[in-house]
UniProtKB/TrEMBL annotation:
Protein name: Hemoglobin
Originating organism: Flavobacterium gillisiae
Domain of life: Bacteria
Keywords, ordered alphabetically: Heme, Iron, Metal-binding, Transport
Binding site for heme: H71
Phylogenetic classification of the source organism: Bacteria, Pseudomonadati, Bacteroidota, Flavobacteriia, Flavobacteriales
A GO MF label: heme binding
Length: 135
């Protein structure tokens, strides 16, 4: 039996990200959305995710940018974010235990909820012809 430890290094981040996205790519529900959007750019996407999570969890400021815009037009709904969160939580729990692992799950949950809210907002605004008031 392997004793789980917390997320403390870039190697831990890479293990989490690689394991998580490997599951996402194969998932029947959300996999096709990711695979269509990312295409053959998976290595580039994974590198960006390493930097993103390293910045958030380890306070090593290696990521800059806005994570939301690439997701704005995705054909997703709450059920997709729920599945994404289910895979993320399960993966994190399989690999790690500790305060930073719990922080990762909380940050992922908050991000999923915010992305879902913003995607709905933009969709509703577009349907209502209110695009001029969007920032």
């Amino acid at each position: 039996m392997t004793i789980l430890t917390d997320i403390t290094t870039l190697e831990d981040i890479k293990l989490l990200v690689n394991t998580f996205y490997s599951k996402v790519q194969k998932d029947e529900f959300i996999g096709p959305i990711f695979n269509e959007k990312i295409g053959d750019r998976w290595p580039e996407h994974l590198e960006k995710m390493y930097r993103f999570w390293q910045t958030i969890l380890l306070e090593v400021h290696s990521y800059s940018g806005s994570p939301f815009p690439p997701h704005k037009q995705l054909p997703v709904a709450k059920e997709h974010f729920d599945r994404w969160m289910e895979i993320f939580t399960t993966t994190t729990d399989e690999l790690f235990v500790g305060a930073i692992a719990e922080e990762a799950k909380l940050r992922a949950k908050n991000m999923a909820e915010m992305f879902n809210y913003k995607i709905d907002y933009f969709r509703n605004a577009a349907q209502n012809g209110d695009l001029l008031n969007l920032k």
